[in-house]
Amino acid sequence: EVQLVESGGGSVQAGGSLRLSCTASGVTFDGSDWGWYRQAPGDGCDLVVSTSSSDGSTWWRDSVKGRFTISQDNAENTVYLQMNNLKPEDSAVYYCAAKGYGLEHSGCKGYWGQGTQVTVSS
To answer: For residue 105, which phi and psi values (nearest 5 degrees)?
Structure first.
């Protein structure tokens, strides 16, 4: 059974920072594709970032470019989303996704993880 356990969300003021973590079991991030999605109440599910192991590329949503970064700890099978200079429009539930487990579709369904809430106040 695959589980993606997200953590690190919280409430911050605009301009603040948060680092989200996602630890996987049943699937390995190392050498595979992965990413993060987010969904705000009443909004659709938006891909924030996705990585491609085939060419080492990373796709970023325009609205977070220059503010968010990613990293991973293969020994811990954990990926991170560092979010700096947060804005109120970044408020959402954030979900991590792995290839075959939310990355291609259903990223915000919560099938493999509960997501983590990020709230940014102005």
So the answer is: -170, 165
